[in-house]
Specification:
- It is a single chain.
- By secondary structure, this protein is an all-beta fold.
- The protein has a single domain (26-295), classed as Porin (Beta Barrel), CATH 2.40.160.
- It has one helix spanning 141-145; strands at 26-35, 38-56, 63-78, 84-94, 101-111, 114-122, 153-162, 165-172, 179-186, 190-198, 203-213, 216-225, 229-239, 244-253, 260-270, 273-282, 285-295.
- The chain has a 16-stranded antiparallel β-barrel with strand order 2-3-4-5-6-7-8-9-10-11-12-13-14-15-16-17.
Length: 296
């Protein structure tokens, strides 16, 4: 089950339970380079894209055509002593940028001690947390549920897993912004994630709960921020068939005029293509989208 449609993440970091675009997957081309007396290095390319139409009754141009293209180059290797290492970079474009650009470069090294990643990494509280979203690109339901949420980009991240438990700690020193974050997750029949983020001015606590019962899935997200107050999201999904999933949710926060809600669907076309759409009311404004997500 994939809850979020936003914020792609490079393959070198631990993936959050919810985050990830449903279209991110490994590209079919993999290069293996071997050297005598050394472990093999692997270079791979991941790719995703989407296309469709979006509607927002509050916008000057209510109906728009939307597209995104995202490629990730990932390199990894292993030392003679068993340490893993690697790097990744994203190359993407969308409606607003109009041209390809590189971003989110990361370098990591890992072993029994855990994994240390430096670069443009998601903050530690963002590793395991996320609210439900609907639509091929998202209508903004998760934004309402995450108002005041810490998250953000840091320049160093440490992660460690032991059995069903995972922890993450991150920090940022760019431009004098000494922010820190931490996250912990228990992954079981019911998965629970806790997060903390302090940007030097305000702090935020987050709680995420997700699980499933047969064909039904559920997701709860809660945020308590010093300045903006509380926000929450509650969502569910039903797997009608191997191809079709129906999902929906509600969200609200202390700064919103109205509660938000929405419903949507994902329908697998096979071969890495998924037809998806969503419709809802976001803080009193009708929003909708319909399109195709693609993985290569």
């Amino acid at each position: 089950m994939s809850w979020r449609s936003k914020r792609t993440r490079s393959a070198c970091c631990d993936r959050r339970l919810y985050d990830c675009r449903p279209v991110n997957t490994l590209f079919a081309t993999t290069a293996l380079v071997g050297f005598a007396g050394a472990a093999a290095a692997e270079i791979s390319v991941s790719g995703s894209a989407n296309m469709g139409v979006k509607y927002d009754e509050s916008a000057t141009q209510e109906m728009t055509v939307h597209h995104e293209i995202d490629f990730g180059i990932n390199a990894s290797g292993e030392t003679d002593g068993g340490l893993t290492f690697g790097a990744s970079v994203d190359i993407d474009t969308d409606n607003s940028s109009g041209a390809f650009g590189g971003a989110d470069g990361e370098v990591y090294i890992g072993g029994a001690f855990g994994t240390l990643t430096v670069g443009k990494v998601d903050a530690a509280d963002d590793q395991y947390f996320g609210a439900i979203e609907v639509g091929f690109d998202g209508i903004g339901l998760d934004d309402e549920a995450e108002a005041g949420y810490g998250g953000g980009t840091h320049d160093a991240l440490y992660t460690y897993s032991m059995g069903d438990f995972s922890v993450a700690i991150s920090g940022n020193t760019d431009n004098g912004n000494d922010s820190v974050a931490a996250g912990i997750q228990y992954k079981g029949p019911v998965t629970i994630a806790l997060g903390y983020n302090d940007d030097g001015t305000n702090s935020a606590l987050s709680l995420g709960v997700t699980g499933s019962m047969g064909q039904f899935g559920y997701n709860l997200a809660y945020v308590d921020h010093d300045a903006s107050g509380q926000a929450y999201g509650l969502g569910g999904s039903y797997k009608v068939s191997d191809a079709l999933t129906i999902k929906g949710g509600v969200a609200d926060n202390d700064g919103a005029s109205d509660a938000s809600y929405g419903v949507g669907f994902d329908y697998s076309l096979g071969g890495g293509a998924t037809l998806a759409g969503g419709l809802g009311s976001i803080d009193g404004n009708v929003k909708a989208d319909f399109g195709v997500n693609m993985s290569f």
